[in-house]
Design a protein that fits this description.
Shape of chain A: globular
Largest interface: A-B, 41 and 42 residues
CATH superfamily of the largest domain in chain A: Formiminotransferase, N-terminal subdomain
Oligomer: homodimer
CATH topology of the largest domain in chain A: Formiminotransferase-cyclodeaminase, Chain B, domain 1
Chain lengths: 297, 297
């Protein structure tokens, strides 16, 4: 059975009882599991991690949108994180036996369904985008809820599905398909913030680095060291090991060593297998050789 | 549910219909799956790979012993591989949620049961051994079936369970518990066999190297290169990455590069995760962060 991950971001991070009620309702859908719920009060936003088959997600996501629309009114919502809607963004991510094409189809199906039934405008993003200027979530979200009515009135900003005006209390929702995102940090054995910032500039796409890397340099004040904090947005095309090697090489330029690296949250097995294959120079290796995978065939 | 692997080696590798019938009977046991069957006609020996819970294996292994005893007569058996019994050796290997202690207990349980019910002497080996001179399979098997009656008459060679004389047609069976074995080869970018042999000598335990490495140097005639061919008998204590790094370092001593490495057959996920953690200097990583593991919790 093909498994797809979905990571809805909703604009409620303070009333955790509301979030728990929504998560419970999603977990009750056959074929869907709630893997994780993270609420941030400062951002006033929660991130739910679901996994399931297409049929289960087709049932769960409209339920999520409907429950969140009943509970959240963006006209009175305050939080640090930018947002366009009560349900802000819903990505679908291929995991096991599912392709990106499956996720694109599911995003468009569910997007249309949600817009038709619940009256919220839906924008399609990343791999599900129907025009190139909607691939990037930040471009769609720029102006936020408060600027949405004005933005939607401009040429080129009609939604992919649903009404041509914002939903009064729920704004708009961005739905799409993307690769799993890996939160990957490399800590450097130095307190020189300029070094972390220079390396971040060197490795990230926006300033000339690797295509699927977002990066910034940060101080870890309590430890007296600095960090290159990254998001890897496509580990198949920009693998972890290449990022690690490049950061290590750039750090050597400043006489600095890598102290350690860390993966925050979940990571696909394949992303780590790649690293083992690369460093061990493994030839002809297949995921079928992993005992645990074989056991579950 | 705790999953244990078992890899029975039986002394029949020519009559594949006999082996298939036995494999089918094991696969029919509830809670047991047959992952692989490899028959070698020159060795006249087959290796079956099973996975299951303890209850399933308690039913499957005596069935395997009984069916093999009916089909194989060691008095007329010829093959290149050393063997002591119709069912020659049955290791139990901890996989998921199972400990080595579970496997030791299972080996002793099943060993006693098989000896009592089927009248075949059973020796316990490796982690299940009850005396240090029975840890090593080769020591137990030395003399083979043909020398077994004489060996069993000597002091110190009474079996752990069962009759004090060989079974007339089925000899004796060696049952035990061990870590998963990883067949790991490193090919060198040279045709100098002496270099492969020197490196094998340096890295294997028997001549002063790493505790859980068996190694030999071989020519790969058709490719014009040489190979350090290894068995890693405990990847937790002697990890793959340390073996790779050591071979690479020793090869550099002779001005030789590592061409590639290969894993033959199955490998536990953890053995490759270790390598990723080591080379990426990953701190605080847990197997729970692997998305596929989380999905199956």
């Amino acid at each position: 059975m093909a498994i797809i991950e979905s990571v809805p971001n909703i604009s409620e991070g303070i009333r955790t009882d509301v979030v728990a009620r929504i998560a419970d309702a999603l977990g009750a859908v056959s074929g869907v599991r709630v893997l994780d719920v993270q609420s941030d009060a400062t951002h006033n936003r929660s991130v739910l991690t679901l996994a399931g088959d297409a049929a289960g997600l087709r049932q769960a996501i409209p339920r999520l949108v409907s429950m969140t629309m009943e509970a959240v009114d963006l006209r009175t919502h305050r939080g640090e994180h930018p947002r366009l809607g009560a349900v802000d963004v819903v990505p679908f991510i291929p995991i096991e036996g599912a392709t990106m094409a499956d996720c694109v189809a599911l995003a468009r199906d569910i997007g249309k369904d949600v817009a038709d039934r619940l009256g919220v405008p839906v924008y399609l993003y990343e791999e599900a985008a129907q025009r190139p200027d909607r691939r990037n979530l930040e471009d769609i979200r720029r102006g936020e809820f408060e600027g949405l009515a004005e933005k939607m009135a401009k040429p080129g900003w009609a939604p992919d599905f649903g009404p041509s005006q914002p939903h009064p209390s729920a704004g708009a929702t961005v739905i799409g398909a993307r690769m799993p995102l890996i939160a990957y940090n490399i800590n450097l054995a130095t307190n020189r913030l300029d070094v972390a910032k220079k390396i971040a500039t060197a490795v990230r796409m926006s300033s000339g680095g690797l295509r699927f890397v977002k990066a910034m340099g940060l101080p870890l004040e309590d430890r007296g060291v600095v960090q290159v904090s990254m998001n890897l947005t496509n580990y198949e095309k920009t693998p972890i090991f290449r990022v690690f090697d490049l950061v290590q090489r750039e750090a050597a330029r400043y006489g600095v060593n890598v102290l350690e690296s860390e993966i925050v949250g979940l990571v696909p097995q394949a992303a780590l297998m790649q690293a083992a294959e690369y460093y061990l120079q493994l030839e002809g290796f297949s995921a079928q050789q992993v005992l645990e995978n074989k056991l579950r065939e």
